[in-house]
Every structure is written in structure tokens, then in C-alpha cells.
């Protein structure tokens, strides 16, 4: 099966018309070991997956248009990227205005930047090393900030890399965020600040069971200060996700080893600078939670965890969180 | 002279084409992973070709330390057979199967284009292929589709001969070795003999086997004899010439050899008189060499020699031969076996074996033996020009290489070090039936760590992974390494790039120290360099004195480490290294992965620092190392357990899910089994010192059971790794335990043994594609899935609506009506109703506008309704509606406070960055976006725009290169959103229609921006800019408008007009089509036409140039 995928010629997709929640594409055993992240790019044309087999694979989605329902949506393996010498934990696509760029991080402490060339192959353009332990999370900043990369590492620090036009990487800003280790870091959407581009924020979650919100210093943009410390988890925080769109409220979801998901909300209009906490589900989840992801407009939250299940959540008009479905394999 | 040849095999060495390092007299084992299923040997006896689903590997047996050449051909089907052409004319041709096709490779061709012919006429999988023994153009194939085909390669499109058994699949096909027209094929339990001159029915059928036939083989000396081996445990020899030989009721059966195993392959020997057979199962995984007992009609297999040593069944065997040119049959043979245990083994034939099978090696030959060029094709062949076709050039991309600066091995090559460690050679041959791979002590009583240089390089190379081996040539004893050592003459702390060449004597380590040379370099003074060489020679000599391997010591010296110069210490090192070797072999290196990584990191860092000085930095990778050296690495690795499952939303509303599909139920079952199995295994087992901890772990798992699974779950990566390893171990134990009971102790020993082989670090060919496939093949890999599911129905923002929504129209109520219709069309009834409501509200107002004037706008609660609607959609997270409302309910353009400004000339040109584009277009077409006309939309814009972006990037990230979107903005008066013409005054009533609260404008701007981003993701460039246009409106803050130029709000993707997209072709003046091929060019006016068109034109009697330039092209 996987050999065929690597063959790069054959498409694996079911002939689905895009019905509600229906599987569009299934790729099985593309990697020799378990997969740790799979992300579609900005346009949904490229899929990057990374795995314990030390590689990243990039697939191309074949053109699907709604007008032409007969065309199958399929994926084609474009490239297998191997540079990491350990498992690769996370990948993130940069905004297309920076080109088709992919950032990856892994257990070997490296952060690699890849760029697609005109042959649809990916070239390694940069290897960033500033952490002395596994880098667990990598994320590009909102594109308005420029090419800015946020990494969280098990060595307890977060780093922010800024790329200059000529490809030079500035000395990273390193923030000691969580003593034992940073498990996740996520930028705030630009709209959170009311259009003030100089005020950058991001949220981190770590092995000290805390969620921390960091804000760039108004006078010195190179400095970040701790703005809030959010306490609710009783075990390691595994993932934090800042809702990408801010309407009247801003949302942060944090999930952890304690099988809980906490939603932090901040009313944009109210003047008090407080984050309110809501526990998503009264009873704990059945297993540890690993991952939280918001839809683009921030209305659906997907949670996944140790029991290999993915659940979807939505806030109803009364402001309560209710299940919006479950994804089965 | 000839006497010598007969009695001293050594006389071959160094003679003729055979290299002195030939592996001929040695037993050799090669561990080759990658699912290889078939092997073949070149007639010259030098190259071996192995075929797997991934392609074929060409291996030079004379330099088995060199990694093989790999010709990729990915198929999902196992390769049934691969065969070298036996003809000198086509000695580089190899045929292999790929399901119903047969591929003929020419190894003389370039790797990317090595397939010479593809034979495709079978309907189902090919089971066997056979080259014609006399005619190099002919070959035959047999297939599951019951057919047997013969091919002539001069026309490979279709077979020249087709026949079929009709009932049973053909398992084998062989040409008669004496009669060029006779072909034998096996079908089920019988063999059919065909004469290709005589049509398609067999002239003889040989029946007698009770079960399926696995193999047939013609007697090389007797035209009418053949041998068939069957599942029924017998090998039958048939003679179809004389009907008188009626044995066992069958008229053709000559002899039956009974074995105690189902026979997989039984073949006549190519020398002497005898056969070689391998079992399908049982039979000690050995190959049996037997002679014929001529008297009896039924005999038991009585082997004269046994080739024993494989751990799994032998799937194929071949004979490698060599001979001199003396006109005497002095051929010498070596058996090559390929087994399911992934070993390719070469077995020399002892001199005393030949007489047993009636091979004298003294007979004078009637005809000289065929000579084959003793050449290897295990290196890729560069373009030879001869075979070059056009398409080769076309699909050859420049290959990017990501080598680090120090010139390490290119990554996608087969890892040389891994390959080396898979090669094992024994110098002293013949006695290989007892495990020859087990004593390290040689005859002199000196224990040597490594059997040979190859092994030493492999082990040392793995150990010192900061050293790159640039060249390893075990056969000649030359090794080139590069590393970074503290040899900088100026600054001792700065490592320096060192390249050193070693030459090892063939007798090393027993005799002779290696000779060393260090490449000259700017950073090392000649003085230092000579000193280093001196010191290295000293070390080499010292180790040589004690007959010890010195490579590691030499490299360590170069790396700047202290080297033991004390004889006692030199001897003492051994156990240490031996221990290391075992540890490595047990394959638990994952646990210290991090440590090695750190080392790696430091290493590469040195490399990159160095590379700025050295002249070989020609690649584009930029390494940035910001690790603070003072930072002590933490003792506790807090890397959490890896996520095995997750879901990530894409911008487009799809959910990418990934799972590790070990279903919980199954897992639990397996776990229970493991517990039982390991508990059983633990019993009666004291003498092996397995960790106590291991045992207690097993106990704790079994006592805790599944209830406390959660608490027992590992939290960190390392814990999970340890658990996984243990699970893996147990699983293997379990598998081995399965089906076997009794005698725990013996079983345990067996298990350990098997376990060892299972976990032994096998050289894996590190081609990534192979990695994955071998991972899937092996039972221990986890299954994983990535699925993309469409969850856009959960998301209120609809792509389909966005496409059709309008923000402006003839009048505001009409816009609302339109949007309402659009929503209803897409079954969004709620949204449709909202639009309707909005429309009705606005309609009622515009009717009364002249009467109620300003104060009346809240008459029907319009504003109140609007703010309620905003609140509702905020709660619903319906960004699309929020943004649409924020656009529809406001009039774009600058707020003109002075009434005089509102004249028709006013143009909201600020929006456009290109002032040239501000034009008055047909003001009547208010319904249309003028922007739309100028470019293609959606898919085409997408592809265009990405291209423009990517091309504008070099290798680096840039911020500033977003081209502007040139939006043409029409005259203000066209955007009469809800603006009402008041007949009384004859003016547009626009300014006062404040449907949106100006105080909340910041919020609305945000909605529009976010929605614009969303549209951008969907690829709706026009819609996006249209939405953003509304950010400058009647409510806009003066400050905001001023700041707008600085912000890149309106920046987006440049839309290339359609005309520019097309390449500029030269157009034929006659037919207006682009001119690509032959053309006519006028010398005078330069106009161009297709030669065909030109011919027609001029033939029509035309005299004037088709371009209309008035030139008389044809006239002088």
C-alpha cells in the first residue's frame, strides 16, 4: 500500500462527493511509524504529515471543484523530507505570501524550514538550533507580523525567530516560559489587539500545568512579558490553541494530561483584563487530551487524545459548549 | 602449467580478469534488507542482481563492500523471477517480472532509463521466465493465466508463440538445452512439452506427480531428459525418448528421487552429473547436492554435500563459475543462495566435492567455453548517448543535493556504513556447513576484533559518527575520512577540518601498519601536519606490533583524544569494544538517542563553522545555531508522549485527522497475551540474567490490569519508548511461543536466539522509500491513517455563498433580496430570512424617506434590529454574515462632510494604489464589479498568483514582496447603497443613512478584514478586495484613513491579466496560430508563417505579404 503511495503515481481516495463530514481522502500507512501531525496549507492544496519515522511527507491534493463533482479528490506524494534525526513532532505552513514554506520541529531539537521549488520538491533552506532538548511545537505568526516563527521546547524555553528579507535569521528571542518544558505555543490572532500590530501576544502551555499569555513590550518589540498566568489544569498542559478569529470574544482552548479541556474567554469590549475559564466538559474525558484545534472562524473546536478519538465542540447561543460530533476513523 | 591449475586453486588468484580480492574462494554472507525475492547472477560470475518490489539491485561480488546499484521500479507485486541473459551479446540484460509484465533491463544503460523492453501479453501474473539457451533474441514466459508465451525481442510488442494448458496455471517454463524448438512447462501436477514448430498442443505430457510441480529442469547433456520437483516430496527424472522405459505405470518416468521434504527447486548441475535441490519447508534450510544413483528406479535422496547455515528457507540458488582459457573444462564453481532470512550467501565448493558428482575438471573440451566480459555494472552508467532518447532529457531535473559542507555521503544513497556491516566474509572456506561465522580467533591464536577491514570500518564508523567516511574501498584498502579536530595552529579551541587518507595493507592487521596521509590545509601548518602524520604512523606501528586493529585509535587521535600507547592498554581495549558491538547489535540505541543527537548537533555545528572557511560551501542550506554553550543540558527529558492521534482544522474548513490504528480492544488482547506469554517464559528460567526490573514491570502490568490504565500511561516520550520496546520484545516472544509448548528452557533459548536475530541491527538501505515499505512489511510497525474530512457544514461561513453574494446593487433592498435568494438556493434558510428581514426593513424606509427625513430612521427599529442581528451572529460565530452586513449597511468611500464634495467627480481613489486605474467606467453597469472584467477568477487566479509569489522569492523568506492588488474603483455615485435619490432636492441622500454605529467601526473593520482573509483562502480575490474596500466608508475615522497607506490592508496578490498569462508566441500571419514547428520567414519584412500556411498562401497566387505590410516577399 505505502509503496504504491510512494510510487507517487497512484491516487488513494474514495470517490466521495463532499457530503457532510464525509471523508474526502484517506492515506494509510504512508509513514513507517506513528504520525504526530498532519496539516493542510493555507489553500488546502498541500498536506504535510510528520512521523516518528523521522520524515515529513508532503502530499498534493488534486484539484477539486464543486462544479465538477465527478473529479475525485486525491492526494499525490510530492516529497519525503528527511533531515531530522529523531521523530518529527509538528509541522506548520507559512502564509503563502512567504512562498510555500514549511517549518518542522522534532525530538532532535532542530527546527527546519523547507521551501517548495518549481519541481514541487522541497528544499531545506534553514536549520535552526537554539534549543537543547526536543522542540515540541512550531508555529508561524500571523502573516502581518512578517515571517516570525514561534517554537516551544522541552528545555523549558520558547523561542521566536525572525527572518529577514535576505534569509538571514536574527538572533532568536528566547523566553524562559515553563520550568520543566514547553509543550505548546500559539500566537494570538492579529485582530485580538485591535489592529495594533506592534502588540504581539502568544500563549504557551507547559509541564508546570500552567497556561501563560505573553505580550510584547510596547517600547521594545524584542521583549516579551508575562501578561497572564492561567491556572486550571492539574497535570501537564499538552496543547493550547488561540481561536484564529476574534468576534466579540477571544477564545483560548487548553488541553492536558489531566484529561480536561479548558476554554479561556476574554470579552473584547469589557475593560477588565481578565480571562474567564470554562471547563469544556463537566466530567473529565476518558483519556488524556493531546491536541486542540479551532476552525478558521473559531466556532468549532476539535479535540483529540490518547483514546484515538476526535470530538468536535461548539458553543451554543446560551454560551454553553455542546458536542458537535465525533470523528471516527 | 595445466597440472598446476588442477591441483592448486590459488593459481587463479590474480590471473586473467579476476581480481586478487575476488570473493570466489571465500564464503560470504550479505545481509540485504528490502524484501528481495529473486536473485540472478551474471554469466561472468561477477555481478548479482537482486529484485524486490522496489526495484533491482546490482551488486558486485568482487567488491561486496561497495553498496549496490539500485534501479528503481516500484510495484506492489512481488517479483517472481529475475534472470540474467546467458548470451554474451546481451550479457548486461536482465529480465524481471512485475505482475503480468516482464521487464528487460539493460544494465549498460543509465539507472533512470534502464528498461529496454516491456513484455506485456499475459493477463495475470507471470510465474517464470526463461531465456532461450541458444538464441539471444528469444525467451519464454509462463503465467497464472495458464498460458506459455515465447517472445522474440526483435519485436517485443507481441509474443511469437502462444500456447495454453487451458486448465491449470503455468508454474514453470524451460527451454530444452539441446533442442532449440522444444519447450517444457509445468501445470499443476504435470509437465507439458511443446514444440514451437508444431502448433499449440503438447506433444507429450508427463504425468505422475501427486501434487504441484515447483520446478523443472532439462538435462544439459541429454536432450530427452528432464527433472521435475514437486510438493509431493519427490524429484522425478523423465526420459521421453524411449517408450520402453515404463516405470511405475508411467511410460516416460525414468527415476524417482524421494526426499523427506516438499521440493522447491531441483536442478541438474551445470557440471558433472548430479542435482542440487532445496526444500520448500523443513530440510534444515539447506541446499542438497546429490549424485544420481543410476541403477534403481526409486531412490532416496542421498546428498553428497550439504550447504547448511541459513536461518530461513532458501528461495533460490545459482551457480557462479570461472575458468581459464585453456581448452580444458577446468571450471570452478561457487554456490550462491538467497534465503528468506535476507542473507545472500556464497558457498565455495571444496575440491573433494567435484569427484563425487563425477566432475573431473580435466576433460578436454570439444568447444571452448563461452567467454563473458568480466565486468561489473554495479556503478551507474552515465549517458552513453547511444541509448539516449529525447524524453530522458526532458524529465531529468537538476538534482538537489543536501550534503553538509564537509562532504558527507549524499543522503539518498544507500548508506555505505550500514551496507558494510551487512557483509561478512570468511577467508577460509569449504567448512561453511558448520556455522562459520562464529569464531573470531584466528589460527595464530591472536584474537582480532574484526574479521576484516570492512567490518572494522563499519563498527568504528558507527561508533565515531562525527567522522565522515568519504571513500571506503575495502578491496584496495583505501579509506578517506574527514573530520573536525583541534589542530588549528592559531586558535586551539577552534576545530579544523581535516581530511586524511589511510591505506591498509591486505594483510592488516596481522601484518603491516597502515600508511597515513593528511591533506594540506590552510589552517594546519606543514609543521603540524608532519607531526600529526608522524604520530599517526607511530600509533599504527605500535598497534601493528600487537597485531591489533588501529583504525579507531588513529581516528581518535585525529579527533584530539588521548590514545592508549601502553601495550597492556591496547590489548585491554578489546573486551570493551566487543561489548560495545553486542550492545549495538541488541539495538537499544533509541534510548540514548538524545545523547547521540546532542553529539551530532555539536558536530554539525563545528562543520558549519568550518565551512565558512573552507571553499566547498556550494549548497543553499543555512544552518543557524544559537545554542548557548553555557547552558547545561537538562538531566530530565520532559518531552511528552508523542501524539498518536489528532485533528487539525484547515483554513478551508476541512478537518485533517490522523490516527494510530491500534484499536483498543485488540491492544488489550495483545497485552493479555503478552502477560501470559512472558509469565510463562519467566518460569524455570534463572540462569539468564535478565533485568529484575523487567520482571517486576511485567508483574505490575498483570496485577494492575486494565482498570488503572490511565495512571500507568507514560507521560514522557522516553517512558513511552521504553514501554514500546518492551511491548515489541514481548510481542516477538509471543509470536515465537505461539504454537510451541513443552520444555520451557529449550524454548527460551530458542527465543533468545531468535530474538537476537530479530533485533540485531540489520543494515537498512536508507533510501526513504524503502524504509517505509520495509516498515510496512515487518510485523512490528504500527498502522497509521490520515484522513481529510469535510466539516465545512459545521462552519457557518460558506464558500458557496461568498461566491454569489453582492455588496452593492441598484438599491440596498435589492442587494438584500439577491443575497436572500442566494442563501435560500443553498438551503441556508435562516440566513435567507435575515437578509429578507433586512431588505424589508430597508425597503419600508426608503419609501418613506422623503417624509420622515433624518429623525425617522429608527421608526421601525431599524438600528435596533441591526444591532440585534450583529449580536446574534457574533454568538453564532458567523463571520461571513457579520462582515457582509458591515459592508452592505455602509456606503464606501470617504465621508464627505461638505455637500459640495459629493459631486459626480468625486472618486474614492485612495483605495487603489495605482492612480492610473481610476477611471470613469460606464456608470450604468453599477451592478457589476469592474474589477472582475480584467482578470480570470478563482482557480486561474490562484495558480497565477501563487506563481507570481513563488517566483518572486529566492531562497529566502521575504516580507515585502506582496504585490498590490489593483482594484479599480468606480465613481462614488454608483455605490448607492441604500442611498436614496430625493426628487425634491434632486440630490442623493447619502450621508445621513447611518445604519451602523460609527462608534463600533473598529469592530466592523475587524470583521471585514477577517472575512477578507477568509475569502483570500478560498481564492476569491475580487470578493476579498471588494470587502476591504468598505473599510473606508462614511464612518471611517480620519486617523484610520490616514494610516491606511501605511498598512498593507489592501495589499494582496497581484492579479495578472489574462493576456499576459499566455506566453508570447510568434503568430503565423496566415492562420493566427502560434508558430512552433517549421516556418516561413520573409527576409524583407520579417513576417512569419507556418510553412504549410505559407505554401497555401503563395500557391493561391498571392503576391503580397499575408501580414498586410505591403511587402512583396517572393519578389526579388
Automatic annotation (TrEMBL), chain A:
WD repeats lie at residues 128-171, 230-264. InterPro entries: Sec13/Seh1_fam, WD40/YVTN_repeat-like_dom_sf, WD40_repeat_dom_sf, WD40_rpt. One of its GO terms (cellular component) is nuclear pore outer ring. Keywords: Cytoplasmic vesicle, ER-Golgi transport, mRNA transport, Nuclear pore complex, Nucleus, Protein transport, Repeat, Translocation, Transport, WD repeat. One of its GO terms (molecular function) is structural molecule activity. GO terms for biological process: COPII-coated vesicle budding; ERAD pathway; mRNA transport; nuclear pore localization; positive regulation of DNA-templated transcription; positive regulation of ER to Golgi vesicle-mediated transport; positive regulation of protein exit from endoplasmic reticulum; positive regulation of TORC1 signaling. Its main location: membrane. It is a peripheral membrane protein. SUPFAM superfamilies: WD40 repeat-like (SSF50978). It is found in: Cytoplasmic vesicle, COPII-coated vesicle membrane; Endoplasmic reticulum membrane; Nucleus, Nuclear pore complex. Belongs to the WD repeat SEC13 family. This is Probable Protein transport protein SEC13. The lineage of its organism: Eukaryota, Fungi, Dikarya, Ascomycota, Saccharomycotina.
From TrEMBL, chain B:
GO terms for biological process: cellular response to amino acid starvation; positive regulation of TORC1 signaling. SMART domains: WD40 (SM00320). PANTHER family: GATOR COMPLEX PROTEIN WDR59. The keyword Nucleus does not apply. Residues 1068-1114 form the WDR59/RTC1-like RING zinc finger domain. Residues 689-698 have a biased composition (Basic and acidic residues). Residues 699-710 have a biased composition (Polar residues). InterPro entries: WD40/YVTN_repeat-like_dom_sf (IPR015943), WD40_repeat_CS (IPR019775), WD40_repeat_dom_sf (IPR036322), WD40_rpt (IPR001680), WDR59-like (IPR049567), WDR59_RTC1-like_RING_Znf (IPR049566). GO terms for molecular function: signaling adaptor activity. GO terms for cellular component: Seh1-associated complex; vacuolar membrane. Keywords: Repeat, Vacuole, WD repeat. This is Related to Maintenance of telomere capping protein 5. WD repeats lie at residues 119-161, 206-248. It is found in: Vacuole. It comes from Hanseniaspora guilliermondii.
